[in-house]
Amino acid sequence: MKEKIKIGSRGSALALWQTNWVIAELKKILPELKVEIEIIKTQGDKILDAPLSKIGDKGLFTKELETALLSKKIDAAVHSLKDVPTKIPDGLTITAITKREDVRDVFISPIGKSYDFNQLPGNAKIATGSLRRKSQLLNWRKDLQIIDIRGNLNTRLSKLDSSDWHGMILAKAGVIRLGLKDRISYTMPLEILLPAVGQGALGIEIRQEDEFAKQVFEKLNHYETAVACISERALLRRLEGGCQIPVAAFGKVENTTLLLKALIGSLDGKTIIRDEISGDLSQAEELGILLAEKLLSQGGMEILKDIDRTNPI
To answer: Which of 92, 105, 249, 266 could tie 232 with a disulfide, CB 3.0–4.6 Å?
Structure first.
């Protein structure tokens, strides 16, 4: 066996937690394997003064890691799967998708756990950097004031604590992974906030030709999560245009059946097109594409055209 493997990671606390978790899981299976971490700064880590919707999100948090993979500077990259574009560069592949953490979003209040999300006052200020969340929140309550925010999780929490905002929406998975569960005021129901494609799962990317890395990392692949995420990503791939769009999806495996729910929303939240589909696990990718077509035919195409027209990158 090869003695050492090098994993590329972004430098944020959450990214390093994720990479170290992958290493710890590998050590359980291959205790003799030596692993190094190479910290790589991505464009998304550098540009923090503009909303993602204005600078685009394709490869913002992955491109530099993929360049390092292709140049053989690293042997693998650990990503939050929701950050990985649906089109992988030639020569690379996602060889493992890890078991999901809770896919839901959470509400965090600066005054702590006692704050009741359902009792938010009129015109409450809620921070999020996600068009997906903004669209769904405004659809639920049109009076909310949505504050755009960027930065890593700790930076966002620090901004919240020194602000006059009523709260912030974050992915529950990241909050839990960084040991900040006590900050959660309320876990958002899926009926109000459907998650991002791949939310809660990690994707491990390698060079397609690297058989050793494939043998090492495929041991961490979680079948049910992978099936669900493959379906979600197929849906997003069919929908993706030239800009960031409010799309949400969640696939769930029940016995031999995959249930996939998804939506497309307008930027102002006035229109939400949602539907679901179910079928055999072996048809995961096809189900994602079929559901995307259903959403497009029910008004989703008009929403996407309007976003392209009014919110160009």
So the answer is: 249
